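Journal club prep — side note

Before the paper discussion, L.F. wants everyone to see what a predicted structure for a comparable chain looks like in token form. Sequence:
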Amino acid sequence: MSSTTPVSPRMMQPTVNQLLGPALKSLYDIEIHLKKSTLEPELRELVKLRVSQINRCAYCIIYHRKDALKLGVAERKIHLLNAWQEASEYSDRERAALAWAEAVTLISGHHLPDEVYAQATRVFSEQELVDLNLAVMSINSWNRLSIAFRYAPDPE
């Protein structure tokens, strides 16, 4: 496909959602669990946005950018997310979460480095680390649905 060819959906999102049936409910149940967790909503959105950038999921990038802005995440922090290691805007907790999210998303290339685990355990409880991993797993699932069926990003 050339870069100038418009991308059209392979299957409409409502159709995919209907065909997923109970599995879709399970994905939403994970989101409900994460909302009840002690992970900060802003941190969860940064993780979702970063993983979506790595996976190049346009639909989810737009969706989670909007959600991050609604939560009060600074526009500058959102713009610098793909270079978070070089930006001073991120807290130690955000840095650990982003490192974890990247390592888990790209796990086939290097598994999860001990230093990423050590960094995460310094700022997250065991429950929070499990919840963080669940958040990364969840957004990777949503990205794969959106990319596979070419969900179109909402217009601004």
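L.F.'s comment for the group: The chain is about 70% helix and 0% strand. Keep this in mind when we get to the figures.
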